[in-house]
Amino acid sequence: MLYKTISKANFKVFINEVIAGNVTIAPKMTDKDSEGNPVYQFQQVYAFDEIALNYTKTYSSLKNFFLPFKESLSTFQFDKNEWKQKIEYSIHPRVIVGVRACDINGLLKLDNVLMKGKYPSPYYVARRTNTFLIGLDHEPMADCFCQSLNSDEALHGFDLFLTDIGDKYFMQINSSKAFNLFKNVQINDIETEDEEKYIAEKKRIASLFKTRVAITGLSNLMDIEFESDVWKKWGDKCLSCGTCAMVCPTCYCFTVTESIDVSLKFALKEKVLYSCNLVDFAEVAGGHNFRPEPATRLKYRFYHQHRGFVESYDEPKCVGCNRCGIACPAGINPIDVIHDLRMEDVK
Amino acid sequence: MEYLGIELKKPKVSFFDFTCCEGCQLQIANKEDTLVDFLSLVEVVNFREISSEKKDHYEIAFIEGAISRQDEIERLEKIRKQAKLVVALGTCACYGGVNSLKKRFSVEDVVNEVYGHNPVETLPVKSVKEVVAVDFEIPGCPISKAEFESIILHLVLGTEFRFKKYPVCVECKQNLNHCLLDEGKICLGPITRAGCNAVCINGKLPCYGCRGPAEENNWPSLKQILTEKGFSPEQIDEKTSFFNSLTEVTKNES
Amino acid sequence: MSYEIPRENIAAEPFMAGPPDFNRKSRLMQTDKVYECMITNIVELTDMEKLFHLKIMDPGESRLFTFRPGQFLMLELPGFGEIPISISGSSAIRERIGLCIRKAGKVTNMLHKARIGTKVGVRGPFGTHFPLERMVGHNILLIAGGLGLAPLRAPIYWVNEHRSEYADVAIMYGTKRPKDILFDYQFDMWGKIYNYDIHLIVEEPDENWKGRVGLITELFNEVDIDPHRTYAIVCGPPVMFKFVCNHLNQVGIPMDRMFVTLERRMHCGMGKCCRCMVGSTFTCVDGPVMDYWTVMNLKEAI
Ligand SMILES: Cc1cc2nc3c(=O)[nH]c(=O)nc-3n(C[C@H](O)[C@H](O)[C@H](O)COP(=O)(O)OP(=O)(O)OC[C@H]3O[C@@H](n4cnc5c(N)ncnc54)[C@H](O)[C@@H]3O)c2cc1C
Ligand code: SF4
Ligand code: SF4
Ligand code: SF4
Ligand code: SF4
Ligand code: SF4
Ligand code: FES
Known about the structure:
By secondary structure, chain A is an alpha+beta fold.
């Protein structure tokens, strides 16, 4: 890792250069909720000024740039008695600007599943390795609990990471790709003053977290409280709508569908991101459903986050962004559910 | 499917419209890029939108529209006798659709309102299945072209078609929409069967459930959510009964 | 009765360490590519089940494909879907992959329409297998209910091929009706040539049925079990293996010497789609073969 600073003016020049040469994705304001609060999403941008750099958090995570909601796994070309499978992984390089630490940590968790291990996913690897990530520190929202999950700081998994220290950014350069980009833009070595400001800013951010979720022992609690009434209580509210998993930065499960084109010349095998809250997640041929009730499915979502994933990768799957809690139409959020499970008073 | 040695039967199909806007037929005829391929799968003997030929030999009858007059009932019964397979096409045919709004007023009022001083004979609106046996239902207002083609393909290949079991919210979120419930609107996406790619919400209009209920539909919870958001029972009822497609789910509660 | 903690056979460890490497590192990017296969033979076993013989068309790929009894593969029927199917045949014969498939839904119905010569695809093999090398020198109880005989055929072939290494082998097989019995044409051979003790039972006999009637557990009255020398392999629906394993447990067979196979929805076989998860465990990676102790301690397993 290389530590430098860049003036805000130069950063703008730099980003405009990046935008000129690449597909660039960044947070933009897209809607307003009924209280008038802005809603942000990651979208393609065409100029620096379109970027909402001081955004809160995006409504949906950026996982869809790595795990598209719908993705072609292969096509089968039919020719009389023959068929041939075609697979393509190629992807154009792109840049994502303004990624929060929790989202980078979310990607690191996806890396564990989809890049490492026994069967890496070439589809994911192609997208991940062709994405240039520029991270950005920010003040947490009132409902962010990434600190409780150790996800408020990203140590790797990005190309650049910036922290606002007044009129410049403190910059961590984490790849030679990133370093090469600064050939035409001036960056500076760190001075003592920068370092002090950086440390002070980090401390300030860390002190701003208002929401805490106790994670210690949660994995075992998931087992011990498997029959708890808490699941029924929240399960009764759950609409089994899958919204939580769609917006979550780390939910990666999917379904596979195949469809023959009307021309009968080819078929498409597609992967569609799914959610364990959906009714037929665990349904098998003949109609048997291993998780028929909304409550068992809701429980399972928490079980995967805080037990299943921990068993495989020694850390929870959740990064504590509370996107699921914000988007859930039924107002189910992990903070309340976990507090409930721990039999603690909510707030 | 030649590689499986399955011979394609090219069924003779007919389209019939009853009380509706014929928008669903338009959906099919409009799909220019795939229309030719589609027409090679089936033999269309009656189709108002693209041909004027009229024949009585067909195996599959697609019924578009709701049934609201005595002569329509008789026509439908005749079609049922002729067809091997009767398919209800579109929300009107499957559930009564927008036409069912009529149900909320008395027949006389409707006749007066719509036809003024030239009254015609009309009956309370019925879905196709309330009149004759229906083999398959393709809901949607209008139907999804892609889904319709897929269903026909399944039919021709002799393999079963399955609707999505999950609700519209999944597709809504996959299109990166902000939830309209949080923008002060009533949206019935959470209890409505997906498959339309959430077109309405993509266009910032809430879902009124034209595709009928999803397999898991927690209406009591959604109703409570809407009530807590300050909507009155009347406001909620107005939306849930819009297409008459969700009554099966919402009636026992409201 | 004194209980001595059994010695683990470390020599069998590398064998246990994992399935043969489908994930050939050099071809890392090929995890979704299917091997193109030809259906070389179809045997109609019952109204509902057919046995398919598959041959991998590319000789190089065919050489790469090896499996252990108990593993499954993902069978691709282009345009219709991909489904997990246990390999039901000998792991020694490379020319022929046997799959016994019941008509159950979209893919399986279409597959039943396929003819000899039809091209299909496979990926795999995936999952865990029965630790047959650990069972060397022991008695083996092979217990199947219904379609459970399909996955059981792989270990049966294995034992046939290594018959002298195992002591007494018994097969217990139960079905609903006599006409549901699979592979009856092989029973004579298994009994006479390989000296298996074969016991059959049906729940609903017809007028020609002369054998036993009842649930599979009733067959235990006919078989002498030496709990200290016996391993059991049980394939069938969860209710069935639960009853059987509980009985075997009472007889005194340790739970980690009974092996069952689990069945869940699967879409990848590689621990990615999460559809097959039982509690915190992936059936496709940590299963489908599991010892009963593990299964008992899994949330949502039974
Ligand atoms: C490890 C394992 C081994 C199996 N071995 C055999 C075997 O040897 N013989 C046999 O006849 N059947 C076996 N099955 C069951 C077989 O996979 C299902 O019958 C088959 O998937 C049904 O597919 P379908 O498209 O015909 O049914 P549909 O009901 O149309 O299923 C739709 C899709 O759901 C998924 N699905 C449905 N049921 C199952 C299921 N039980 N398991 C996994 N995925 C499912 C598949 O992706 C399938 O394409 C096995 C299942 C597992 C998990
Ligand atoms: S928690 Fe549920 S929705 Fe999320 S990845 Fe796991 S199985 Fe999928
Ligand atoms: S808070 Fe919710 S959305 Fe965020 S990572 Fe955790 S489960 Fe996913
Ligand atoms: S928890 Fe909320 S978002 Fe998730 S499925 Fe249930 S209702 Fe939908
Ligand atoms: S309630 Fe409506 S707007 Fe909200 S997520 Fe569901 S479909 Fe989308
Ligand atoms: S969003 Fe709702 S109303 Fe609109 S087409 Fe889909 S199901 Fe029908
Ligand atoms: S089959 Fe996909 S995770 Fe097991």
